[in-house]
Design brief:
9% strand, elongated, 39% helix, two-stranded antiparallel sheet, Nucleotidyltransferase, domain 5, single chain, alpha/beta, 352 residues, 15 helices, five-stranded mixed sheet
Length: 352
């Protein structure tokens, strides 16, 4: 009635007799001696505090659906995304006696409670064909990303054979979800049997004497890859830090150039190798270079003054900002593994 409805209409929505509604409205019980109790099934304001929908939210959704409210209107009233409400209704509706679809809040809550317990059996552990396919391709040294794409291409109409690469990593790294043999982890390009912890970005300090120009100031033309000449760079480090190879990847064409570093990876050596390599390029292919905050780029200003190529630095612990270079380095690891010493690197790289 606070929303402007009449007593009869409000009582019909709540499901009570109009006389009971008047008693509730006036605050009197049947014997006129004590205050009326609140309605048993009255809708209280939605919680909106938890990440998950609760029973109160589901009752509110059911009541508003009976009032023919739209999903977007319900989402605004609950402070949720429309996709959350749509998914909740789609997953938890029930079929009535006449075949119609009804949303029943208490049944929906029971279904949600049944789905919540953890841990759950992994998708790979439950499907032998899927597990065998992944194990076979890991033995061929395919990456999890390549395997997941191959699954969608090979089995387009079988969603039970589709997984994302994170599912494969979980099956390899997490003991309780070990649907794949642990020894297959060595087939990954990293060769690690567990995930490597990363340092916090706020713990890293500026290590360069000359101020860095961050990637946020890089020209927009480098971001959309429309114009060639913008490069990403990094080093591949050998066994016991005894050797290194510099890699340069052009963002538009993915063309790769290797830097020969036979005498180490000091700042002067890296600067000279970069200058020597970049000078072989035509002018229109020397627009910018993006690097991480590795100490080998301590003389980046001298490189820029010599070649007229500005250097932009990624944010700390943000390798995805040089995605092309990171992916290329992962592929090159198959030919230059970490276990290779300086002599092996020298034999395979030669002069750039």
């Amino acid at each position: 009635m606070q929303q402007g409805l009449s007593n009869n209409e409000a009582c019909r929505i709540v499901g009570i007799n109009p006389k009971t509604g008047r008693r509730w409205r006036n605050g009197r019980s049947a014997d006129h001696k004590q205050k009326a109790a609140p309605p048993v099934h009255a809708v209280v304001p939605p919680s909106g505090a938890s990440r998950y929908l609760c029973e109160i939210d589901r009752i509110y959704i059911a009541d508003r659906l009976r009032e023919k409210a739209t999903i977007r209107a319900i989402a605004v009233e609950l402070g949720r995304s429309p996709s959350t409400i749509s998914r909740e209704i789609r997953r938890n509706w029930t079929i009535g006696t006449r075949g119609q679809r009804n949303y029943r809040p208490h049944a929906a809550q029971a279904r949600a409670d049944a789905r919540r317990p953890r841990p759950k059996p992994g998708k790979i552990a439950q499907n032998a064909d899927l597990r065998n396919f992944i194990q076979d391709h890991l033995n061929r040294r395919w990456s999890p990303e390549q395997i997941c794409q191959a699954l969608r291409t090979r089995f387009p109409d079988q969603p039970e054979m589709h997984v994302v690469h994170e599912t494969v990593y979980q099956a390899l790294y997490v003991q309780s979800r070990g649907a794949l043999r642990r020894d297959l982890a060595v087939a990954l390009r990293t060769g690690r049997a567990r995930r490597k912890p990363r340092c916090l970005a706020q713990q890293r300090q500026n290590r360069f004497r000359d101020p860095m120009v961050m990637i946020s100031e890089r020209p927009a033309e480098a971001e959309d890859r429309a114009v060639p000449g913008h490069w990403e760079g990094d080093l591949i480090i050998g066994k016991d830090n005894g050797s290194a190879i510099g890699t340069l990847v052009e963002r538009s064409t993915r063309y790769v150039m290797l830097l020969h570093l036979p005498n180490g990876r000091g700042t002067e050596l890296v600067r000279d190798a970069l200058v020597e390599t970049v000078k072989t390029l035509p002018t229109h292919l020397k627009r910018s270079l993006t690097w991480d905050q590795g100490s080998e780029m301590g003389r980046h200003r001298e490189f820029t003054l010599t070649t007229d190529v500005p250097v932009y630095f990624c944010d700390p612990a943000s390798p995805w900002q040089r995605g092309s270079n990171e992916n290329t380095n992962g592929l090159l690891r198959q030919y230059f593994p970490t276990c290779m010493g300086s002599s092996g690197v020298r034999d395979r790289v030669g002069r750039p």
